[in-house]
Design goal:
mainly alpha
């Protein structure tokens, strides 16, 4: 899995975020939770390889 940073588009507004349906919010939450779990696993793997100060 490859994570990329995306700059927010200035044309999108907070109003659009507020208009998300409940299903879309739940979908985003699931995706965020999956991403967090993935990042934690990556961090553990990296900590085993290299000592992080």
């Amino acid at each position: 899995m490859k994570l990329t940073l995306v700059k927010p588009d200035p044309s999108t507004s907070l109003e659009q975020d507020a208009a998300l349906t409940e299903a879309q919010k739940q979908f985003q939450m699931r995706n965020l939770k999956k991403m967090i779990r993935f990042m934690k696993a990556q961090l553990k793997r990296l900590e085993k390889e290299v000592t992080i100060d």
